[in-house]
Design a protein that fits this description.
The protein is mainly alpha-helical. It has a single domain, classed as Irregular (30s Ribosomal Protein S14, Chain N). The chain contains two helices and two strands. Strand 1 and strand 2 form a beta hairpin. The longest helix is centred in the last third of the chain and has 10 residues. The termini are far apart.
Length: about 60
């Protein structure tokens, strides 16, 4: 889980556009965050397997 100071840093406006930090909306993870969903890879996988993400299906070929 992200600390309160890390969330405060994310919520204030960035001085430069390259300094924007993307965090997962569920767990607060800062790495491997998909911008389309604002979820990290772990939370996205859990929600997709449960069928809670619309338009996301497991790949099979």
């Amino acid at each position: 889980m992200a600390r309160a100071s890390q969330w405060a840093k994310v919520n204030r406006p960035a001085k430069f556009s390259t300094r924007v930090v993307h965090r997962c909306k569920v767990c607060g993870r800062s790495r491997a965050v998909y911008r389309d969903f604002n979820l990290c890879r772990l939370c996205m996988r859990q929600l997709a397997l449960r069928g809670e993400l619309p338009g996301v299906t497991k790949a099979s070929w």
